[in-house]
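Repro:
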Amino acid sequence: MKRITVLLLMFLCLVSCNSITDEIEIIENNKEYVVSIGVAGEILDVTQVPLSKASGDDLYGIQVYARKTTNDSYTHYAYGLFDDISDLKITLKDGYMYKFVSTCVIKGKDDIYHSQGENDVYMHYGLPFRGYLNNTFIYSDSKYLSFLESGDANLNNKYGIDYSHPTIDRYYGEVQDFEPAGKENVTIEMLRMVFGAKLIVQPFKEGTLKVSLNVFNSNVATSFVVQPSTETQILLEEIFSYGDYETSSLSTIWRFEKISYIGYTFSHSFDLKIVHIHSDGKVEETVYNKSLSFPRCKMTTVSFKLDESEVDTGNELSSKVNVVLEDKEVEVGETIEIN
């Protein structure tokens, strides 16, 4: 009888100890950290304001992902759309690693399409955010901001159109595998995701020129019919946000996360085609057709001059064009007005 009693007491003790251990684990798993979020990198060069005053017309979309330290797969954790990041904080759980993805559109409150329904408390903004501007994090594993890595945007003047190369000033950054234990801050380094294009035609006398720069699906014209002039003509001078690009294998789409990985040396090529149509309308010849590289954060100026010296090729006239390329850094704080 004593033996049975002793065994019963040992069993109860074991169960009790296990319960205490389980309770300790639950308490540890419920531990949370409040972490401040800041931005750094090239975005500070343009905003030129301290973070304590970083509010206004710029929009920041932030998506946070979480994974257990024993798991390699991230799931959605929290998201938010902000125009004030002066005191941005998030609550993170112990035992998890976190990934932060953020994009910023300068003057986004003006340039990105927005609307407010009759029953909406907050203003809703289109791509690349597709979310409500409420300046707080929403904790959810089912709702999220899914287009922050994409170059697409809905502009305020054209609802429903997804522009692949919009003329907006945009930034992107990531933080991978952030562990909050013992940390009070996380900083997202933001790179500028734009390139500049300027097309200049030197004076010419005869015929017309058809000029096309294949910056596809933009909100501004990139194809032009140019008439003769004694003056230099500027066809295009804009900054564009990079788009989403297929790789040569077509198996991977190059989005902002890939561009940010390459970082400072990234560039993308676009085809420039120039066709000279002679005055008699009988001769239409392609005088230039090449792919040109447009580096990140540089204004690439393409200046071309038609060589109008006549070359005897039977009954046709032949012409050629001289193209000069020049890159310069997009100046800190430089603004190109977009009409």
